[in-house]
Amino acid sequence: MAPRSGLRYAAGVRLAYHVMSSPLGLLFLARTERGLRFLDFLERKSLKRAFAAHAETVPDAKWEPSLLQLKAVVDQLDSYFCGNLTRFDLPLDLVGTEFQVKVWRALCRIPYGATCAYGQIARALGQPGAARAVGLANNRNPVPIIVPCHRVIGADGSLTGYGGGLPRKRKLLELEARFAHPVGQAGSRSSTS
Predict the structure, then answer these.
(1) Which CATH architecture has domain 4-81?
(2) DSSP sequence for 2-52
(3) What is the distance between the alpha carbons of residues 131 and 149, in angstroms, rounded to a whole number?
(4) Which residues pair with 62 in a beta bridge?
(5) Which of the residues 45, 92, 126, 179 has the least number of beta carbons within 10 Å of its own beta carbon?
(6) Sign of the torsion angle spanned by Cα atoms 35, 10, 142, 50
(7) Which runs of E-coded beta strand occur in the chain?
(8) 143: nearest Cα among 109, 83, 94
(9) What is the tens place of the pLDDT at every residue in 4-27?
(10) % of the chain surpassing 90 pLDDT
(11) Of 82, 108, 116, 149, catalytic
(12) The pLDDT of residue 4
């Protein structure tokens, strides 16, 4: 997983896309030739609205349906939802500020079944006062689940905001706890250092 810095693509980038079913609802997946670029929760959105939501970062994109190009992503997500995969191994094409990319890399180091507070991530990045900025970067994560922003919680252990909604965050954490810890054992907290 090698996130790139920068805020947008040049006009006319080609994106292969696919919509898959999951225990969290429909997932919109899109990739460039470099790797997975977007994972969105579709909710009641149409494909047209999904494309429009990314128009600012990928102007004049050429959207092409392709399960074949996203099959590895679909297979790994299916394995994750079944409890058979604890770490994704996919090429990613993440575009963000330098700080966002650092946060997304730190999120990938939070172990499966563990959680971490925003402040812990800020301290691990050498910026102890940046907990709020970590939260904003978390909110901008273009590939939730794969880059596990759902594993970030409040300092008091509470579930805090999640782009896919708190019920989805809770469901992801419960899924990981069920497969990561034997029955009767509590979940764990982790640091990213």
Answers:
(1) 2-Layer Sandwich (3.30)
(2) --EE-S-PPTT-EEEEEEE--TTS-EEEEE-SSSEEEEEE-TT--HHHHHH
(3) 14
(4) 14
(5) 126
(6) negative
(7) 4-5, 14-20, 27-31, 36-41, 62-65, 95-96, 114-117, 152-153, 188-189
(8) 94
(9) 444 555 557 899 999 999 999 999
(10) 73
(11) 149
(12) 44
Query: How does pLDDT run across 82-102, given as a tens digit for each residue?
Result: 999 999 999 999 999 999 999
Which token pair is 37?
């670029």
Provide the whole-model pTM: 0.86
Residue position matching structure tokens 């172990």: 111
CA atoms within 13 A on the CB side of 144: 23
In the chain, what are the domain boundaries?
4-81, 97-189
Q: 157 Cβ partners below 8 Å, 6+ apart? A: 115, 189
- Packing angle of the helix pair 98-108, 131-139 (nearest 10 deg): 80
Q: Which token pair is 122?
A: 């800020």
Nearest CA to 103 among 9, 8, 192, 7?
192
The CATH fold of domain 97-189 = Arc Repressor Mutant, subunit A (1.10.10)
3 state DSSP class of 95? strand
The counts of H helices and E strands in the chain are: 6, 9
| CA torsion through residues 35, 38, 39, 42, sign | negative
Other Cβ atoms less than 10 A from the Cβ of 58: the count is 23
pLDDT of residue 192: 43
